[in-house]
Write a structure and sequence with these properties.
heterodimer; A: about 240 residues; alpha/beta; Rossmann fold; 5-stranded parallel beta sheet; 4-stranded antiparallel beta sheet; 9 helices; globular; B: about 425 residues; alpha+beta; two-stranded antiparallel sheet; about 55% helix; about 15% strand
Chain lengths: ~240, ~425
């Protein structure tokens, strides 16, 4: 595992400092973190430990107060906001804890949202509609479900549709924010099997945030967020 | 791409969106209706008087003279003597002078006593001649020529007999009984009050009123049709209600009007129909402006309704915004989505409202025709109205700038996270 981390990283956060506007204490003060291409990383942390803030920083939704975010050779922190949005559309897939889908769209249209805001990503997907259907099928959604409204699907199905959306157009990195916390144990394992299969197939790296330590065996590397948050800690 | 999302989002909230669209549509319909009716009614009045240079009657308000002589609205208060008519007809600049006598009706339709020259001289809709659809002008003393609407509504054909009533209006207590008229001619439709009228000769009008000098028939004094026909040569009225005058040259109109108004033998009023109409529009103009202001306020209320509807959806839509953000949508695109939705709502309201207005206008047309003899059609909106409608479309988007700005700020603050 350390071999992968030692190679030229896909994502490197260096001496990152961030405080929410108006907050007295920074969330991060000197955070360092690396993810290698194709690596599956489990990021463990209690709720309120800044996981969502970290994902927002990596996603380019907020800019760090200090430090560097390098993603696939690009200095994310140096980009303008619109450029960060474009970068996210092209290189990232995101899965939330729940409520991932636009309820009035069918699963195919929801998956297509993943490559709607980036031309390159759309091109990588090839025949988008066919790719969306392939991913949905690979994530275990049967054809009959393709034409239903997303809010008529079960929670487990919705999470799998969300994974398909995150994966369309083979992003470099999939950010997953506690995607299994709304699922029971069987659904969770089924979801992870399918997710890992497709993440590997797409060659994407996976940064998986969770407090459910039962899952750690599946990952290449496990990181604890709390010790990383302040200067001096190593990854 | 955004338009698909906007459409999907709108159809997801179909009921609420429909209500909003309908509110806007009703307000637009009101505005269009007020404006269209105004221009159509004006045009209808305008087309009813063409080719008449001066209308002469007893002194009254110019608008009133125009209304009772041409549109059959209201009553004359006094008459013009026959001597005056003859003198005016002989005046140097007068090309023709057609007298009319009012005061009778038939089943609510106005009966006009006039001369046969009326059918040749009267013009409507910018210079069109009156034409006979069937039959011809009077040949017998007790012949009547009827307008197209009268023929259609009362189902009269050539040769049918009818009796006239004394006085105007639907309910008339006195009839000119025993003096039936025969339908001799039916005029082609004009879309003017002509269609609502019946025409008899001045002599016939005079004949049936012999013995009515006090407003009611003196017993035993009326003429039988046979007596009247025998005395036809002597049936010359003492007075007429009004005189339509055409001039040899329009340049003479103000000079003649001045001379008539200063007429030494009798108090007279001469009006130019066009100017009297302008006065009428000045009177109705205030009411029209008030209606327009009200309609404008209703449109504003409609747009504010849309604003409210958009604002109330913002909270429930935060999650959707976060999803779109996660997929790489820029805040400006998400704000644009909201503007697009507002534009689609306003556009739908505009289209529906205009259709509604035209529907109502077509529905009201028969009533206007029956009441005022004014034919209105579904004319293409005037350029100013189109401009106003376009302005409302723009206003709809401008109003939506408020929620769009809120969304823009909020997406920036929220990131991918839905903060409650």
């Amino acid at each position: 595992m350390t071999d992968a981390a030692a190679a030229e990283p896909l994502l490197r956060l260096t001496d990152l400092r961030y405080a929410w506007p108006g907050a007295s204490a920074p969330v991060f003060d000197g955070l360092n973190l690396r993810v290698a291409p194709g690596e599956a990383v489990f990021l463990a942390g209690a709720s309120g430990s800044g996981k969502s803030t970290l994902l927002a920083l990596i996603g380019g939704l907020i800019a760090p107060d200090a430090g560097r975010i390098e993603f696939a050779g690009t200095r994310l922190d140096a980009l303008k906001r619109a450029e960060r949005d474009r970068f996210r559309a092209e290189h990232l897939g995101v899965i939330f804890q729940q409520f991932n889908l636009l309820p009035w769209l069918d699963p195919v249209a929801n998956v297509l949202l993943g490559c709607r805001f980036s031309k390159q990503r759309g091109e990588r997907a090839g025949d988008r509609a066919a790719e969306a259907r392939r991913l949905l099928a690979a994530m275990g959604i049967d054809e009959a479900g393709f034409s239903r409204r997303a809010d008529q699907l079960s929670v487990g199905q919705q999470q799998r549709v969300a994974a398909a959306r995150a994966l369309i157009g083979r992003p470099d990195l999939v950010l997953a924010d506690e995607p299994t916390s709304a699922l029971d144990r069987d659904r969770r394992d089924e979801f992870l099997d399918l997710l890992f299969g497709e993440v590997r197939a797409a060659g994407s790296a996976l940064l998986f945030v969770s407090h459910d330590r039962e899952l750690v065996d599946r990952f290449d590397r496990v990181l604890e967020l709390d010790p990383l948050k302040a200067r001096g800690a190593t990854c | 791409m955004l338009i698909q999302l906007a459409r999907g989002s709108l159809s997801n909230r179909l009921f609420a969106v429909s209500l909003t669209v309908f509110t806007i549509a009703i307000s637009i319909a009101l505005l269009v209706l007020v404006e269209q009716m105004r221009s159509q009614v004006r045009e209808g009045f305008q087309r009813s008087v063409s080719g008449v240079d001066l209308i002469v009657g007893a002194p009254t308000a110019p608008v009133q003279l125009l209304l009772y002589s041409v549109f059959g609205l209201g009553d004359a208060t006094a008459n013009v003597t026959w001597t005056t008519y003859e003198e005016l007809a002989k005046a140097r600049t007068v090309d023709w002078a057609v007298p009319i006598s009012l005061g009778d009706s038939h089943q609510g339709y106005r009966v006009i006593g006039t001369t046969a020259e009326f059918f040749d001289r009267y013009r409507f809709a910018g210079g069109q001649n009156l034409a006979f659809d069937q039959g011809e002008a009077w040949t017998d003393l007790f012949d009547v020529v009827i307008g197209a609407q009268v023929a259609r509504q009362l189902d009269y054909e050539l040769g049918d007999q009818l009796e006239l009533s004394h006085g105007a209006g639907n309910v008339s207590l006195m009839t000119h009984a025993g003096q039936p008229f025969t339908v001799r001619g039916i005029l082609a439709p004009t879309g003017t009050p002509i269609d609502q009228s019946l025409y008899v000769s001045l002599e016939a009008h005079h004949a049936i009123h012999i013995g009515w000098e006090r407003g009611v028939p003196r017993p035993g004094s009326g003429l039988t049709p046979e007596q009247a026909r025998a005395a036809e040569a002597e049936l010359q009225p003492d007075a007429v209600t009004a005189i339509f005058i055409g001039l040899t040259t329009r340049a003479a109109v103000f000079g003649l009007q001045q001379r008539i108004n200063d007429y030494p033998n009798e108090a007279l009023l001469a009006v130019l129909p066009g100017i009297a109409l302008q006065q009428l529009w000045r009177i109705t103009g205030l009411a029209e402006r008030i209606l327009l202001v009200v309609a404008g306020l209703v449109v504003l209320a409609g747009l504010l309704g849309m604003l409210t509807a958009l604002l109330t959806t913002l909270n429930e839509r935060r999650r959707e915004m976060a999803i779109l953000r996660a997929c790489g949508a820029r805040p400006i695109q998400i704000a644009g989505l909201l503007l697009l939705e507002a534009f689609l709502i306003t556009l739908a309201g505009l289209v529906l409202g205009v259709l509604l207005a035209y529907g109502l206008q077509l529905a009201a047309a028969p009533w206007l025709l029956a009441q005022f003899g004014i034919a209105i059609g579904a004319a293409w909106p005037e350029p100013t109205l189109l401009l106003v409608l376009a302005g409302i479309g723009v206003a709809g988007v401008l109003v939506a700038l408020i929620p769009a700005t809120l969304v823009y700020r909020r997406t920036l603050a929220d990131g991918m996270q839905v903060r409650q």
